[in-house]
């Protein structure tokens, strides 16, 4: 039924383009939820049969590194479980990121702190007394 439906409503060129998009899909700027939705949408166009374990490996392969490094050691082979764990890690990583940004000297800015100039002593005005 699935094959007949796809052939009827999606020309071969569209199915092929969607399959290529699926094979190249990465999370990029998407949340895990959006990535999972896009992944499952495009997986329908994959011409080969998809085993659950392969689907999980493919999904993890496209995750951002920060999430992948935590999720890979879990060796999850059930797709819904994998997506839920990835969402949890994403949420935890997001809260850790905020904590790190809030720490530091008062007035420091994200990313700009290392490029600040050292403090320069004010120069005496011309004609005034020189203090040493």
Short description:
With 132 residues, the protein is mainly α. The chain contains six helices and no strands.
Structural commentary:
The protein is mostly helical and 132 residues long. The protein has one domain. Helices cover 56% and strands 0% of the residues. The chain has six helices and no strands. The chain has helices at residues 2-9, 12-24, 32-43, 52-61, 65-71, 79-102. The chain is elongated, with a radius of gyration of 26 Å. Residues 98-103 have low confidence and may be disordered.
Provide the fold topology.
Layout: H1 2-9, H2 12-24, H3 32-43, H4 52-61, H5 65-71, H6 79-102
Helix pairs in contact: 5-6
Q: Number of folding domains?
A: 1
Q: Calculate the terminal CA-CA distance, rounded to whole Å.
A: 90 Å
Q: Can you write the helix and strand succession as a string?
A: HHHHHH
Rounded Rg: 26 Å
The overall pLDDT, averaged over residues, is 81
Number of helical regions: 6
List keywords for this structure.
mainly alpha; 56% helix; elongated; Retrotrans_gag_dom; Retrotransposon gag domain-containing protein
């Amino acid at each position: 039924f699935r094959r007949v439906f796809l052939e009827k409503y999606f020309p071969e060129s569209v199915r092929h383009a969607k399959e290529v998009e699926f094979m190249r899909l990465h999370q990029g700027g998407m949340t895990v939820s959006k990535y999972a939705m896009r992944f499952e949408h495009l997986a329908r166009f994959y011409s080969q049969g998809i085993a659950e374990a392969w689907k999980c490996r493919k999904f993890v392969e496209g995750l951002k590194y920060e999430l992948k490094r935590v999720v890979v050691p879990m060796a999850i082979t059930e797709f819904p479980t994998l997506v839920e764990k990835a969402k949890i890690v994403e949420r935890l990583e997001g809260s850790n990121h905020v904590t790190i940004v809030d720490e530091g000297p008062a007035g420091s800015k994200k990313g700009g702190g290392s490029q600040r100039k050292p403090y320069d002593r004010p120069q005496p005005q011309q004609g005034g007394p020189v203090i040493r």
